[in-house]
Every structure is written in structure tokens, then in C-alpha cells.
Amino acid sequence: MPRYSGPWDRETAAHLLRRTTYGPRIDEINKAVKDGLEKTLDIVLGDYEVPAPPVKYREGHDPAVKLGKTWVNTPYIGGSKYRNLSFRSWFYNTMLLEEKTTIRDRMVFFWINFFAVHGEHGDARSVYEYVKLYQDLALGNFRTMLERITVEPQMLSCLDGALNHKDNPNENYARELMELFTVGKGELIAKGDYSTFTEKDVVSLARALTGWVNLDFRFSDQEIPVAAKFEASRHDTGDKQLSYHFGNQVIRNGGADEYKVVINILLKSENTALHFCRRLYRYFVDYTITDEIENDVIRPLAQTLLANNYEIRPVLRELFGSEFFYQSTLRGCVIKNPIDLLMSCLRPFNEYKHLDWIDLRFRYEMGENYSGDCHSLQLDFQQPPTISGWKAYYDGPQYHRHWISPALMQQRYWVVKKVTGRNFSVDNNLLPLDLHTFMKSFSNPHDINEVVKEFILIFLPRAISDQQFLKLKSWLLQGSSEMVWSTEMTGYLAHPNNNSYVRPIEDRLYDFFEKFFGMAEFQLQ
């Protein structure tokens, strides 16, 4: 695809960061402009740290684990609910507290939606392991990811791979491996033939995948690792005939490595590369894939994926560096999912972490709060509604409009109003936004016009009308003059601990947020 050659300004940089990170801050946007597109892509798609695992943050639970230490490799003693709360809190905290400008967390949710493993009622250690897999391989190789997830304990449990026995093959994972994870389900062109695979292929692959079971670690109080093993006695050693879609290949007995043979065959099909790139496109760009987009965007990306032996970074770099990606029609064309909504109104403020009194327990209780907010907006990352993931990414023609309804819109407004409001508290502890640091980060906080422009830059995905701009300005001025704003801001920045200077500005800001974050445009990215 042609490389982007247009202006590299703050609006363009913000578009890139808005689609590749969660809630970009003004300093990240400014740095991206200074660095230029290529260096910014180096940073966004570059190396990253994998977050430290979740820990015990309350006494009275997990007697075998010390406070502040992780439980992910420790047998169960006592109930199981606490670990799940710890895990969920950790998941949201890792995103909100990420300092580096990285695509890591966006890719983690891409994989959560791509494989859609249900983990709500699983052993928390096992659930953590598959999410850590997504963190480890967020920008890695698709082949490696498929090999790892196929024998991942939580997947073996979720799609019945652990029940797949030579005497009674279970077709569940084999079907989804083709239909959802690799070649995709094409059009029905004949009985049992979906143009990308046949029902006989499902049977053959199910037989080839037999033999894998989980160790008996589930909620065990014994030292049993969260792992799977291959049992040769359960594996079908016979020949498995594939259809013309796969060159009529025959899979011979490969024992414990036969699943890798299966994956290798599936990855040789161009349909797999095309299907994967469509999934990337609908996640990062837009749901509409016309014939023109299929030919001019999806196919070139698929060729890049194949040419790089299924390494993902080159594909994303080509997409995010393309002329196509920066079209004005693609800015603000997607409705934020609940995680995006939450992150986009908190991370630009650096959340509340400036409060040095926040201890370990309270930090995790804040994560519990965020988890509950997203759950109320119909996104629980541990409970994909189907093995296909969330409807926003596959169910047309509505697609991302599944995130909104009259009731959900009210809830979305309420969640944003709550976490950005002057009276937000967790466990009776008030959590004011760090507005002083936030306003100091603006280019010229004394100029009300520049302030409004930067609010739009940070929080809205595209330009608004002149009439809307004047309305935002009036909301912030509240009937006073630009000169009064400038004078009050001077006092505010110079005296951050003097309530006489703080109240006039922060009262205006909190009143402004309530209206500003209620704008329909804020729901878009």
C-alpha cells in the first residue's frame, strides 16, 4: 500500500495513537509529532514490558501467600473467588498505569476477542496464564500463537480439546480452529463444503488433534502446575485425509507434534492470511470491507503477512503507515468499546496515581471498580458472549453499534460522569483528578481558545463545527471573559495548594467535564 505522505500534525498523530493505545496523553501526542511517523511507529510497535503478575492484596485470603506476593503459582487453600477479583483488578490497573506508549494492551484485547476463551469460572491461575500468553506474544508470530493456544489449558477446557479422544473425537476445537481462527468459514458451495474447508476436514483435524489433556490442577491444593500433557494412548495414529482445499494432503501420525502439522497446513492457505487481516482491519480501522478495500488493503496486508512467515509487526506497520489509514473518513468512524471509553477519559489525566496515599489494597479496589463499570456496559473480558467474541467485531450490519442502546447510552454517560466527577470515591475515599498537572501540560493554559482546541485534540477524534467550538468555550467560561480565565489560571498554576485560587478553576473544569464528556463525539474513536 502507498505510504502516508500527508501532513504529520497533532491531529494525525492523535488519530494513530487513539487507534493503537488507550487514551493518549497530550505529552504523548506532542512527542509523536516531534518524532515523526516512522519513529512513532518504532515506539508503538516496539519492545514492551510484560506486567508483573497479580498479587494478594487483602489479609484473610490465601493463607499460603504473603501479602503483596503473587498467587499465580501457588496451590489453592480456601475459597477461589478472591483470586478472580485480584486478577480482574490487575487487568484494568495494568492498562491504566502503563507509562509507555505501546500497542501492547490493545493487542491483548484483540487476542481476547480473537480466541474468545471463556474464563469466568476457570481456575484463576489458568485464566491468568492465557492472558499472559497474549501479553507475551502480543506482537509476536501468529504461528507461535496458534501453536501455544491450541494446547493452552484454558482453551483445552473451553473448546473441549481435553475431551478429544481417538475413540470419540470431539470436533469442537477443530471446527473453530478453521472457521474462526484460520481459513474462515466461506460460502456454502456444496453440501458440507464452505469454500474454505469441508465437514470431512473437520473430522480429520479433530482426529489429528486428539491426545491432549490437562493436568489435574483445577482448584487443587497440591503442587500441580497449570499445564497440559500429551497422552499417546488417547491419540489417533491413523492417516487423516484432507480435502482439495488443502491439496488433498494426508496427515500421518505425528504424535505429540501432530497439532503443529495441522497448524502448518492451515497457515499455508492464503485464506488464513486474508481472514486474519480482515480481523485486524475490523478491530483497528473500521467494520466496512468493500471490494475495493479487500483488494487494495486486505490483500496487500495478507501478502505481507505471508511474506514475513506470519510475523505480525510488519503487517501492523504497513497498515498504520499507509495513506489509507489516515483518510478523514476513518477518523471517528468507530464507537468506543467500554474499555476504550473508560481509558479515554482517565488515562489522559494520569488517572489518580499522583495520590501517594493509595496503598496496595486500595489500588486493587479501584481496579475492581473499573471492572464493574465495564461489566455494566456489557464487556466482561473474561466472558466473551460467544466463541466468536463480541458482536461489535463480527455481527453486521450493526457491528460496533452493539455497544450502544438507549439504556446502554445512559449507563455510558453515568460511568464517565462518575469517574471524572468532583465527588468520585472508592471505599469512601475521595479521588479528585489531578487537574493541576493536567492543565500545566497544555501548550498555553492561559488562552481559553487554545485550551478548548487541546481538549478537542485529546478527547475527540475529529474536528467539530465552529458553532460547537463556541459552545465548548462558553461552557468553560461560564459567562465570564477570556481575561478572567487567564487571570484565574495564572493564580491556579502558581498556587496549587491555595483553595482560593483552586476552586474557581476546578469548579469550572468539573462543570465543563460533565457536559463535554456527554457529547456524542466523545463516544467515537
Please name the defining characteristics of this protein.
single chain; mainly alpha; two-stranded antiparallel ribbon; 6 strands; DUF1800
Give the strand order of the largest sheet, numbering strands 1, 2, ... along the chain: 1-2
Unreliable spans are none
User: How much of the residues is beta strand, in percent?
Assistant: under 5%
| Overall number of strands | 6
Mean of pLDDT? 96
- Our count of helices gives 22
Q: Strand pairing plus helix content: what structural class?
A: mainly alpha
End-to-end separation in angstroms reads 23 Å
- How helical, in percent, are the residues? 40-55%
Which outline best applies?
Answer: globular
Oligomer: single chain
* SSE topology string: HHHHHHHHHHEEEEHHHHHHHEEHHHHH
Overview of this structure, please?
By secondary structure, the chain is mainly alpha-helical. Among the domains are: 154-257, no CATH class; 435-523, no CATH class. 49% of the residues lie in helices and 3% in strands. The protein contains 22 helices and six strands. It has helices at residues 10-20, 26-35, 37-44, 81-96, 104-115, 124-136, 142-150, 153-158, 172-181, 199-208, 258-267, 270-284, 291-307, 313-320, 338-346, 360-376, 406-419, 435-440, 448-459, 466-477, 482-494, 499-516, and strands spanning 212-214, 228-230, 240-241, 250-251, 425-426, 429-430. The chain has a two-stranded antiparallel ribbon. Helix 9 crosses helix 10 (199-208), helix 15 runs parallel beside helix 17 (406-419) and helix 21 (482-494) packs across helix 22. The longest helix is centred in the C-terminal third of the chain and has 18 residues, at 499-516. The radius of gyration is 25 Å and the shape is globular. The model has no long low-confidence stretch (mean pLDDT 96). It holds the Pfam family DUF1800. InterPro entries: DUF1800.
